[in-house]
Amino acid sequence: MDIVIPFLMTFVIGELELPAGDPAYTVNGGRLAILMAALLVCAMLALVFGVAGGKLAAKASCGRTSTARFSRFLLPTSTGSPPPA
What are the strands, taking DSSP E only, across the chain? Predict the structure, then answer.
């Protein structure tokens, strides 16, 4: 989505630029509305994918650190001393 949004923006700018020497130029509202709707859809998809990626990254890192913490502090270790009675 991060590549598609600037690509669509070039079409919006191209639609809005005034041709040289043509004061009677009118903007095609239908095409501009379609481009803006496509930009809005892309922005919403980027937002949804960004939030989902953040949640999944947090979940993955939390699982990784809890596993490391468990193996570091909670597993019995061999110290050479007899087990407690």
Answer: none
